[in-house]
Every structure is written in structure tokens, then in C-alpha cells.
């Protein structure tokens, strides 16, 4: 596994072959395994509560000065969107399991045989554990890690039905959408929904502290000394149930923290300078896809991406233990 971006830590390394001789191999198999189709298109049961985001304009981008230049959160620019409906929560393990049961779909993590797991959450035999990712040694390639086994072969989903599904790639999320008759949100839709109608706010709740210093925890992020010790002061070391903490102004739960969420758009750090004002859908070219919202690994000491405007990216076949998705209704 390698990490092509300068700060891969809070998102995850991109999928790539490791150095020669390093087990397990994470390169793609020469022939995909069976069951990779989406099954019956648009016939799936997607029963996630919907939030209505009204049409109108908002200011998109970082107005706080906290964004990383390489992420391209500037300039702040006006974006107008039509009204849309978006999931109140990310897709859960239970919801994704219904998709798998109905379609026999094989995720990218299963096809490649491995996925990226944060080092403190690895639950796997020694033989399944690869060398740490270059540039982000807290990420480990683990053979057998997938959506059913988030820490590796020795882990399971027991007690995690209402947690967000992880180890899903962008391609897996799109496949789910095809089955459910849904789509991924555009980056602009995601940010508008996360802001909940608050103009230029840093977080979905405004500007209040995230860290419980006022007695209220507002999101699932890292506490303690990253990456060695998480105090779990907010109650969680890894993922939290999707309806933890308080929802934002439009009703979205955990738009920031918990898990990164895939968006439809390709990533280009210079896109905001040329983005159309009406319903932007991202650049036409680009190898990577956008992720939004930060995760349980975000910490201000090294990663301040649990903000409304924060962006990250990864290749569409990459999967990791802190990335999931939510969907949008077809217009």
C-alpha cells in the first residue's frame, strides 16, 4: 500500500501493490471474482430516514483559514442547488448486509483480498498483517479485512449493526446506489447538507468546541496522543452508532467525524476557482474521488479535517476502516 498525497493520515492510503515480497499482496487480481455485479438495478430496500435540503445558494469552501492548501478548500464561492433529499445517516452494516444478501456483490476489499486497518484496531493473525503504509505507519494492510471483518479475520460485526459500514470503496458505494435506486451526493450537496443552513460555520453545530470542554461531545474524533493512545473520552475508539451525538440543522447525523463519506465528484485541488455556480458536479477528469467529513481518527494535532469545508480524496478502488457513505434520492 502507498499514500500518494502529502497527508494521508486521517483518510487512508490508496490501494496499490506493496514492495516486492511484502505480504499480503494488495494488487488487483488478474480476473475479478464472481458476483461483482449490482444485481437488480433500483429494486433494493433502502430504508434510511431522509432529510430535505431546501434549494438555494450557500457559500462553499473554507472561510476559517484552517484548510490545507493541498486540499483546495478555497476560494469560498457561491453555489446554488435545487432542493434534494439525503440520508440522515451513513449506510449501516445492517443496511449494507441487505444489499449483499440480495445481490451477492463482492466488494473491492474482498476481491483484492486485503484492506487498510488502523493499527490499534487490527484483529488478525500475524500472517495476515503487512508492513505499515509508507508515510502513515498507523495504517496496516490486513489480509481478510473487509466490511464483515473490519479489523481482520479475527473480528466480526457482532454488536455493530447500527454502525456505519466501512471498508467500502467508491465503486462499492456506487454499486449499492445502483441497487437501491439512489446516487452518491455531489460534493456541493454534501457540504450544503452538512452546514444545515448555518452560513460560514466551521462545524455543523456552528463554532462550539468539539472536544467536550463545555461538557458536550459533538462528534466522534480522536482524543489523546495520536496515533498511540486514544482515551475514548467521547465513548468510542473506532466507529460509533450512526445516531450518536446530535444531528445538524437539516437533520443529518454525524456529518463530521465517525467515518469519511464518499462523494460522486472527482478530486482536483484547483476546481473551486473554476467551479460553476449552478449545481457543480466536479471536474471531468481526475484519478481520485472526493471524501468528506473526517473520521474517528481526526485530531487537531495533525489533521483538522472534521469541518464542513474539509476535503480529502482517494482512488475509487481504495477501501479503509474509516470510510463509508450516505446517499441521495434521484431527482
Helix content: 10-25%
Shape: globular
* Largest sheet: spatial strand order: 13-12-11-14
Radius of gyration: 18 Å
Beta content: 15-25%
Number of strands: 15
Describe this structure in words.
It is built from 4 helices and 15 strands. By secondary structure, it is α+β, with helices and mostly antiparallel strands. It has a 4-stranded mixed beta sheet. Strands 5-7-6 form a 3-stranded antiparallel beta sheet.
Which key features would you list for this structure?
15 strands; four-stranded mixed β-sheet; 11% helix; disordered N terminus; alpha+beta; 331 residues; three-stranded antiparallel β-sheet
Write the layout of secondary structure elements.
Elements: E1 50-53, E2 56-60, E3 77-81, E4 84-87, H1 93-103, H2 108-112, E5 114-118, E6 129-133, E7 136-143, H3 170-180, E8 182-183, H4 187-195, E9 224-225, E10 229-230, E11 260-266, E12 289-292, E13 311-314, E14 323-324, E15 328-329
Parallel strand pairs: 11-14
Antiparallel strand pairs: 1-4, 2-3, 5-7, 6-7, 8-15, 9-10, 11-12, 12-13
